Amino acid sequence: MSHLVNFYSPLVRLPTLMPGQFGVPGTDETTGLRQSVEGTIYYVDPNYPGATTTADGTLPTNPLSTVAAAMTRVQPYHGDVIAVMASNAWGNSYGYGRLADGMLLPIAENVIVDVPGVRIVGVAPASSNGVVWVPATDGGTCITVTACDVLIEGFFFDEGPQTGCDAIDAIWDGTTAWGDNLTVRNCVFSDTVDTAIDLDFAYYVNIYNCVFWDCDARGIYCDPAGSASAFCNIHDNIFHDCATGAISMVEATDNHIYRNSIYNSAAIGALAAANLGINLGSGGDNQVFDNWLSCILPAAANGDYNDFNSGGAGDAWINNHCANGDATINPT
Fold this sequence. Notes:
By secondary structure, this protein is mainly beta. Helices cover 5% and strands 30% of the residues.
């Protein structure tokens, strides 16, 4: 889905034809990428010769080597962007790439995003998967968001050489950490990811145009032992055979879940598939509509609509498409 990322190429200026404007700092630079008055682009490219954690990072020809280093430079609500450059890591990990092409290193970090208003963008215009991001440790979480108004897009999350991987964890602990207002879009979560997106008391999260391929555990998840999320929009995503549930948001309230494609081989095979689709049990006041579900209409059988899903009190489940027709009632 990262091919949907719209990220501009650097603006090349010709000083002899278009000299800098007197009194306007920055107009005499030969290259520049400006998306707001204050915003700065920090380039991250571990494959670039000479890339370090101490570089300035504002030029693609002098990039930083890690996202963590870029996080030390961004400022709250300045419109700053961390632009993570494309690599050949996915192709070579799966035997499709050519070693001669180079660019073999993925992003291999467990990063804490604790600066609000930051955008982290994988720049992979030739790839539908995105810039490869793997954890730095076994069972590590690639990105932990503890600040408001963060955007993440254009990445392919995978465990890589590690054992186990959680991709994104958004946390609000009610005191010092806030994962609210997070947007995750145009990302792919591979079949080696355990939990793709964990929402712990995070409100107003927007997740769309993502693909969750055979995640070892869950697609989008709220831990019942923690605190549930609310006021989230989850739409236009693909979930395929997530082992313990595509969308499991027990106790969650006031969310909109729509236009998602959710496939599970157990459900379509009329096998037991309890809550492997959308599970909103113990929550309430959610609206769930126009989703495509690989189950049959309520039939008191394994893999049917009621087996595959659970609704909460006061939910409105409207025109969700099952394999043999549209369900117009809440799952029971």
